[in-house]
Amino acid sequence: MFVMIENLKYQYNKSTKAIIQNFSLKIKKGEIISILGESGSGKSTILRLLAGLETPNSGSISINDNVIVNHHHFLPPEKREVGIVFQDYALFPHMTVERNIKYGLRKMSRIQKQQRLDEMLQLVRLEDYKNRYPYELSGGQQQRVALARALAPAPSLLLFDEPFSNLDAHLQIKIRNELREILKHTNTTSIFVTHDQTDAVALADRIILLENGSIGNELKPSELASTNYMLQYRTGLRI
Amino acid sequence: MRLIQQVKQQINIWAILSSMFILVILLPAMLVGKHFFAKPNENWLHIKEYLLLDILSNTLVLMAMTGILTTAIGVSLAWLITVYQFPLRNFFKWALILPLAIPPFIGAYTYHGILNYTGVIQSTLRNQFDVQVEQKYFDIMNIGGAIFIFTIFLYPYMYVITKSFLENQSSSIIENARILGGNSIEIFFRIILPISRAAIIGGVSIIALEVINDYGVVKYFGIQTFITAIFQTWAGMSDLDSAFKLAGTLMVVVILLLLFEKFARGRKRYSYSTSKIRPIIPKKLTKSKAMLASGYCAVIFCLAFLIPFAQLFLWMVMTYDKIVTVEFFGLIKNSFFVAAISAVIIVIVGVIIANYTRIYQGIYAKVISKVTVIGYSIPGAVIAISVLSIFVALDNYLLSVFNYFQMDPLIIFRTSIIMLITAYVIRFLTVGYNSIESGFEKIGNSFTEASKTLGVSTIGTFFKVDVPMVKGAIFGGFILVFIDILKELPLTMLLQPFNFFTLATRAFRYANDEMVSEAASASLIIIFISGICIYFFHKISEKGSEK
Ligand SMILES: Nc1ncnc2c1ncn2[C@@H]1O[C@H](COP(=O)(O)OP(=O)(O)O)[C@@H](O)[C@H]1O
Ligand SMILES: [Mg+2]
């Protein structure tokens, strides 16, 4: 398995109860996983644990057979090659689109960087915007820059935290289809968390329900979809 | 397991640097503590028996009366400006902050110059109207006069703090009060005062610290306080031990004051809610009431800024050809030099500590953050004697080392500017740090986290993301520290190297030698620069709150 998460446990210093416990998950290379849970159920915490922004109390994570965290090893976020698209995008406001996207490309030559930038801009269709600052872009465009920035260093795992929550409904539908295409096109293993079933169904190969800090039911998108009106969305939009 | 990892993550360049800085800041406090419990000498017993009670009562009276009067003026002005619309309101809104540009000691000698026998008031009365006045009504060289000076030049702290508090309150509070049928005065006493309690107490404690720290006003007016006594025992009698005993006793007063602040403020901190609130919309006053409000603001503005400023300006015009010489430009250079160097060091140290306490949350980081802000509550004179005794010990040590190798010492700290700058850094780090910390608080952690997940190290992130994003706050901190140092008197008086004067110490020396008009030029430069900075800040915060 490409990504192996085993028995993860996490408790915030101030709280009395573990937010995440007995959390295990295996992901194949190139698979798109969606973690579905209510607000406050610990979705963002899981992503932060994967990215190395929090240290688990116990449990282990490995990617491509490299251990990134276990009980005597902790790889800091900058060495993990785990990309993340934050809920509020966190685009650097003092940098243009171009500099934002190039930010994570440190080991490349200048020509390689430029190539990668052009590739990314083309992928998210923002060729004409590279000299703009984030505040000069619409919400949907910002979201695409955030995606391009996270994709540019070719992370082995890409995480999305409620990627559509800041977008208008019609944009949501459009972008999430684009997103799935891009992720499949680049064969990027990804996890995105959401509280919105529609998003989960539209994007994921596999949907995981987060209940009480660990994994509840696991579903195929079609199963979730067939049980309710999501089916219409899925069939109407992607097939 | 997680503990070990957390400890491992905590030990890094940031923690080490921060801990070093903190140690330097803590040194004066520890030194004062050590001396406070040491065996007293005869001089101290004498001071304790004959002087201490006077000193204590003067200090307490000055603190209490200034606290009450600045509260009355500052809160009432803040309330008028936020809740009502009246002529010139927009001008007064920032003009009422302007008196902060005038250091109280400059105000003190200016008012004495205005009111004394040869001053403009009495000579006009004498020459134009042939009126002789009773001198005692025009004498402000007493404790009442000092309270007046402190009140008019320090009330802006209260005004600024309560104003920004009230501006962040929802209009519904006042609307409800109006609906429930209270008139304006009732609303002021029953609503405004109680809800502003935490802000007011914060303001009072800042003002009290300023009063405690003062040397210029009380020295000029001949009032004994802890600071004047420290100057006497040390500069006059070279009795460092007693100076430290006085410093220790004063620190007990400061600690009691800070405890009072903590308890009086209670659990309510004046943090502003971040969610969108409907701001208070100023209500138009009827004609006569509006005149009254404008008149009140105008009186305070004239007393606290316009009159002393005009007098200083006249004096400058009278004497500038005598004063503005090569030596004068030397003063400006000195002042700018020490202020700029110290401010640069402070913002660098401030950024490092603020970045550390932000990234590594935990008890140790919290302690560091708390300790960083104690410098400002230690009076300048106390920091001065501590820093001096440390550098004297260092000099003696170096001397013995160099003697051993039969060499001349390469540097003597006690006569160098390094000592002065060190003391400034300890005293004013709080000011720079607070500005930078609030800058970091505004941007949050997500940009830093985003940078790290893109493969950039903590150090790289610091220079590429953290610093550029808080550069406004860094610049703001620099300016605040710069003008504080420009105005600083007691610490500079005690530690300035031989023949090294700043604008402030020169102005004070002139004024103390009864050469008030000569003091005016130096004073005006301080006021001018501080005034511009204050205006600038007002504009920025105005813009910030409109967003
Ligand atoms: N820094 C923190 N300290 C303490 N508790 C936290 C912290 N951050 C989040 N929590 C708590 O952890 C739980 C899970 O948070 P989160 O992972 O953000 O949930 P979600 O993303 O699913 O909405 C919530 O109950 C939240 O209150
Ligand atoms: Mg969340």
Automatic annotation (TrEMBL), chain A:
PROSITE patterns named in the record:
ABC_TRANSPORTER_1, ABC_TRANSPORTER_2
Protein name, as recorded:
Carnitine transport ATP-binding protein OpuCA
Per its record, the protein catalyses: a quaternary ammonium(out) + ATP + H2O = a quaternary ammonium(in) + ADP + phosphate + H(+)
Gene Ontology CC annotation, any one: membrane
Q: Where is the ABC transporter domain?
A: 3-237
GO terms assigned for molecular function = ABC-type ferric iron transporter activity; ABC-type quaternary ammonium compound transporting activity; ATP binding; ATP hydrolysis activity
Q: Which UniProt keywords apply?
A: ATP-binding, Cell membrane, Ion transport, Iron, Iron transport, Membrane, Nucleotide-binding, Transport
Note the subunit structure. The complex is composed of two ATP-binding proteins (OpuCA), two transmembrane proteins (OpuCB and OpuCD) and a solute-binding protein (OpuCC).
Q: Give EC number(s), comma-separated.
A: 7.6.2.9
Q: Which Pfam families match?
A: ABC_tran
InterPro entries recorded: AAA+_ATPase, ABC_SmlMolc_Importer, ABC_transporter-like_ATP-bd, ABC_transporter-like_CS, ABC_transpr_FbpC, P-loop_NTPase
Name the top EC class.
translocase
